[in-house]
Amino acid sequence: MQAELIALRKELAALEQQASSDHTSETFSFGFAPADKVLGGGLALGGLHEVFAAQQADLGAATGFITALTLRAAMDTQAIVWVRQSYAGQETGRLYAPGLASLGCDPDRVILVELRDALDVLRAGLEAVRCAALGAVIIEPWGEPKVLDFTASRRLALAAAQSGVTVFLLRPGAVPQHSAAQTRWQVSAGASTPLAAGAPGFPVFDITLLRQRTGTPGQHWHLEWDHEQHIFRQPAGLPPLSRPVVPLPLRRQASAPEQANDPIPIARAQ
Amino acid sequence: MTPSPSLARNEPPRVFVEKVKGALRIAAIDRQAHNLGLHPGLALTDARARVPNIAAEDMDPAADNAFIDRMADFCDRYTPFIANDHPHGLILDITGCAHLFNGEENLRQDLLTRLKKGGAEAHASIAGTPDTARALARFGGRAIALSDEETMAVTSLPAMAIGTSPETITALARAGLKTIGDVTRQPRQPLAARFGEAFIVQLSRTLGEKDARINARRPVPPYMAEQRFAEPIAHEDDMLATLNALCLQIARLLETRGEGGRRFEATFFRTDGRISRIDVETGRPQREPGVIMRLFRERLAALADPLDSGFGFDLIRLAVIDGDSFIPVQTGLDSTDNDEEEVAALTDRLSTRFGTTAVKRFVAVDTHIPEGAAYAGAALRVKDAAAWEMPVGETVPARPIHLFDPPQPIEALAEVPDGPPLKFRWRRMVHDIARAEGPERIAAEWWRHDGLTRDYYRVEDSAGHRYWVFREGLYGTEAVRPHWFLHGVFA
Q1: pTM
Q2: In this predicted structure, what is the pLDDT of residue A153?
Q3: Domain assignment present for A267
Q4: Cα-only R_g, chain A
Q5: Among 3.40.50.720, 3.40.50.1820, 3.40.50.2000, 3.40.1170.60, what is the CATH number of B2-59?
Q6: Angle between helices B197-206 and B130-138 in degrees, nearest 10
Q7: In this structure, are residues B124 and B98 in contact, taking their beta carbons and an 8 Å threshold?
Q8: Quick check: A112 and B488 CB within 8 A?
Q9: Is any Cβ of chain A less than 8 angstroms from the Cβ of B198?
């Protein structure tokens, strides 16, 4: 009995690996060379990526950042499904199409699904993820619903790996927790480089890479989104900045592939 | 049709009353009350004086209408073309349907038997025109009047059966014209002079000389397929199999005319007269039976209260409510075409499962008022792709990514009354403004006569959050102390 179970588990693990190796080996560029380097070439296509806002007030920035990443992940004309819990709309305002357009995302590509129930949000998200014709899926449940546990995120990650559709989980009103996401980000709004006459400039994000499965987390960038070329760039007049903000765990294997050519030496605990 | 309560011996006669000019008057009565000589229009006090033990209840027109609606739904099994005949009748256009029931008399009998089983007492007549049939049914004429015997059939009916105003009836009665036959024997010209042209039209309609169109209560679907069962079915597998067979039939019908359906409706008729309707909608015209069936399965699975088969269904009907021309395309070579198709199918599935209004696409509206400039409409109903204004060159986003509708009131402090704000308080937080741009003045639409001019500012607070705020009302001319609002949040 025990042996059978073990054999079955092995088989399952092998299957999972097979499934996850289908698409996750492909990546899409983050759109900022130093970040790509830290990420080991870029973010996983057909992966699950989680984005948190540092504070409630940063939700606009987090939404902007996820829109930017979505544009990076999806091909130029591919449709994007955005599943949103309707409570988010009441709390943070509705998704405004001209605003999406001003970030370079054609609102015509977006299929917006607004649902009251968190479980429905996940179900609709999963259904969408299975459709390989999509460029990306954004799932935005509100808060920390019980249904969105590790199993649920694992299910999303597996479905994404199978179809090759990248999934972004936008987590308004939630704190980072254990999940099956390949990368986890925290975003807050950054002071922009002012234009003439002190006008607010291009959107600037303070981005922290909280976790990545294959490499070093804790990187921090201060980046401006270029909606024309769909890339991130350093805001003018700021020194390049890429350093870990949290110390690395003690017993981590020091075999991150990019470690050797990392441009900035990383302070590492013994 | 009157719902007949159980005629138990000891039950008192029942009347329904309504208030007419301050007095309670009888509006409807049951058979027992009728036999006791009561009639609608009688004051309740008079009725009580005659029959002390009557049970009086308030008239409930809404419930009456709902009952008639249920009846009409039930009658859908005979013909899709049904009109309400207010206040308490139904007109069924059974042209081309009678043969399904082995003739008109059988259809009529079937209808009456089923209604009786359902607890309703009804009268029904069949005639060539709706008005003749109505006169015959209401005033106890013969059951079926063929098109050449209509005039003869109605002559013995009272003049009231013509269906004109009570004044006209009274006037006719004073002239000694008691039946329709009496009226028809008079020359028409003087009648027209006395009672108006409308009366003559109504008369000739009742006589079956002129046909009148009836307004169907539900649009008659362009395509229909149905399956009747001698033995009612209750099992879900049987239902789905039947639905599948109907889908195939419909697909063949659609194919012969080069069309596809955009809305499909399955109607399940239960033996006890209850019917359930389930409809699915697609973004593009569709006729692939597999796809339609898949949507129906989704829909059935998503039903809040599952289809209750009760004692079984004896008729299942599938109808195409909306058809559209359908051009088959060869797929397989061009991948983008396939992608579009797949995304459309996903939209259909999501709409079916979570409701048509939950799955949306953005629609651009040609207006400067920000909250009106874009909305998200049901994806299945949005036809054309909107042309969005995409940023060209180095332009800073001028519109927020999140928009509050309605705008959120804030307390703002400005250096000069018509200048940008220095700080504002929103959701109990004070934001010090580091950078501001504006105003972008958006005036109310003068042809709507409402709203004040808004001065919009893009502002960034000291923490880097970017907001879109506006002052409502021009200082001094439109408002003494203009209010401030926060309308959106930038990325």
Answers
A1: 0.75
A2: 94
A3: no
A4: 19
A5: 3.40.1170.60
A6: 80
A7: no
A8: no
A9: no
Pairing outcome for strands A48-53 and A166-171: parallel
Tell me how far apart the alpha carbons of residues A155 and A137 are, in angstroms, rounded to a whole number: 14
Domain total for chain A? Answer: 1
Nearest CA in chain B to A134: B343
Does residue B142 carry a pLDDT above 60? yes
- Find the closest chain A residue to B439 by CA distance: A199
Q: E-assigned strands of B415-482?
A: 421-426, 429-442, 454-461, 466-472
- Alpha-carbon distance of B198 to B184, in angstroms, equals 15
Assigned domain for A255 exists: no
Q: What is the DSSP letter of B144?
A: B
- Which sequence spans correspond to the domains of chain B? 2-59, 63-206, 223-350, 357-389, 402-489
Cα–Cα separations (whole angstroms), residue A155 to A19, A126, A134, A231, B352: 12, 8, 18, 30, 23
Sign of the dihedral through C-alpha A4, A6, A12, A15: negative
For B86-163, where are the alpha helices, taking DSSP H only? 104-117, 130-138, 150-154
**What single-letter DSSP state applies at residue B418?**
T
- Tokens read off for B190: 């003087």
Written as one letter, the residue type at B199 is F
CA of B346: how far to CAs of A128, A139, A156, B265, B380, in Å? Answer: 7, 16, 17, 20, 11
Residue B69: predicted pLDDT: 87
In this structure, what CATH number is given to the domain that contains residue A136? 3.40.50.300
Percent of the residues in chain A that have a pLDDT greater than 90, as a whole number: 61
Does A107 touch chain B if contact means CB atoms closer than 8 Å? Answer: yes
Q: What distance in Å separates the CA atoms of residue B389 and residue A56, rounded to the nearest whole number?
A: 29
Please indicate whether, in this complex, the C-beta atoms of B376 and A95 are within 8 angstroms of each other.
yes
Q: pLDDT confidence of A258, banded at 50, 70, 90?
A: very low
Examine residue A18 and state whether it is found in any structural domain, yes or no: no
Q: What ipTM was estimated for this complex?
A: 0.81
Domains B2-59 and B223-350 in one fold? no
Residue A183 inside a domain? The answer is yes
Chain B interface test: which of A102, A223, A224, A227 (most B C-beta within 10 Å):
A102
Residue B137: HSE in the Cβ half-sphere, 13 Å Cα cutoff: 22
Closest in A65, A108, A128 to B388, CB measured: A108
State in words which class domain B223-350 has: alpha beta
Q: Render pLDDT for B239-292 as a digit per residue (tens, 0 to 9).
A: 899 999 999 999 999 999 889 898 999 999 988 888 889 989 888 888 889 889
Q: Tokens for B277?
A: 């309707």
Residue A164: domain span: 23-249
Give CA B381 to chain center in angstroms: 17
